[in-house]
Amino acid sequence: MKLSILDQSPMTNEQTARDALIASRKLAQLGETLGYTRFWMTEHHDLDGLASSAPEVLLSYVGAYTKSIRLGTGAVLLPHYKPYKVAEVHHTLATLFPGRIDIGLGRAPGGSAEATNALSDAYLQQVYRFPELVEELLLYINQKHPVLKASPVPDVAPEVWILGTSEKSAILAGEKKLSYAFGQFMSAKDGAKIISTYVNTFNGTKEQRNKRPQALLTVSVYCAETKEKAEEIALPALIWSIRGKGNLPSIEEAKKTTLTEKEKASIQKRKENMIIGDPFHVKQQLLRLKETYQVEEVMIVTNTATVEDRMQSYQFISEQLL
């Protein structure tokens, strides 16, 4: 079973943005040591609590401190950008870090309406054109554009993934013969069915019969010595996710937070889509997901109030499965 890391550079009240970015680099180094396959960074804009607005910049920093773990944008939000520039950026990364770069493509806004307008003059129109934007990007990545070359051209091209939570994204990935990442951690949809749709679409196309579908599942996981401790380290992120303001609170602050009945129900609902527990429980749940979703790789996102709890969670999981 392959395990990977999705990092959002979470910020706490005790951290500066620089602290959070340095912690992301340290997490990538730990992940490489522990045997994780990929380290992807998300793209969020004007969102309190997360320092990950420019994953392509952060990956150049992380890459300089690592040697083998694959690095990826998960996702670069393509409707905000011109495909040519995205290709140039990732070709540069692939030139610096040969055979290690992934381009995860998403169509979400990644932030508020104000941030979206600041990034793109015609975001909704570009969302509708997402399949065309993907096709244009592939021309540059595969060096098949009739006029332009996205320099520098690396010896090993970046691997392109479609990231999503719907059958629409799964079908697009299958039709384009691309790898697919399903975001189970932010979806209540039938992910197993969606991944099956991806595989069936991929296998049903005639082009490049030598390629095989590759899918991964992204899930939110909190692992600690005991289930009680795991619940404790998961609480700040749960409080932060329903309040949507400020940085992640400390465990002590989270415990003191007064919640409405509606908020309590919202937290309970979110927990149903997460794995929270001791190492053995987490192992069993991840193996169950692997079987249910029929994937070879699971990507884990974990946001805690301390860097130590986050790193220890990934370490406990690796000791059980890697």
From TrEMBL:
Highest taxon, organism lineage: Bacteria
A GO term for molecular function: oxidoreductase activity
Cited Pfam families: Bac_luciferase
EC number: 1.-.-.-
Residues in Luciferase-like domain copies: 11-292
Record flagged with keyword Ribonucleoprotein: no
EC primary class: oxidoreductase
Alphabetical keyword list: Oxidoreductase
InterPro entries with a match to the protein in the record: Bact_Lucif_Oxidored, CmoO-like, Luciferase-like_dom, Luciferase-like_sf
Family: To bacterial alkanal monooxygenase alpha and beta chains.
Cited NCBIfam families: oxido_grp_1 (TIGR03558)
Name listed for the protein in its UniProt record: LLM class flavin-dependent oxidoreductase
Gene source species: Aliibacillus thermotolerans
